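Protein folds are increasingly written down as discrete tokens. With that in mind, we are printing a sequence and the tokens encoding its fold.
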Amino acid sequence: MANTLHHQSQAHAHSTFMFKHGTPQADMERAVWAEFRSSNRKALDYLYEKYVRLLYVYGGKISRNHAMVEDCIHDLFVELWNKRKILGDTENVKFYLFKTLRKKIVSKISTAAAEAPIVREAEVDFPIEFNIIQEQLVSERQTQMRRALASLSESQREAIYLKFYEKLPYQQIANVMDLDLKSAYKVIGKAIDTLRKAVHNIYHI
């Protein structure tokens, strides 16, 4: 069952929506969402194909249990389709999907005591690039930066991902993570301070 939705979506992999050149992204998203709510299966396929990879990456910042993340994404799209006629409008589909997926993952984690949201010692797959000639020094600095990223708390890593990789504003980060705005600023601020200190140490190796 876990692959049902994926296979169904792939059957319509080449289905696309045609928009006039220059149509704002927000308008295209609203149009597709309206079609989805009107039971257009091509709209479901469009949303799946556009966001499934982003959802998987984001889910991986919350839990290292990749099978569970995949199940939650599958459940998310099945639930969306089943409830399509009672869903309201949304100004930001990605934000809505991220928030819904996070709730599902957190809910599953809370019911599995042995499941840790993120393995603290795991290597974090963030892009790291340093323009340094000496190969050995590059390797050492990359290792130090990975350690700095891994030293962040689960919520700090998630917030950093949403801020600097998904480019969400602070208010949306707060909403996705179920925080108040002040707490969102605080979480990201502490994470940036930690990384800033790490960068200082790295360049004094």
Observations:
- The two ends are 52 Å apart (CA to CA).
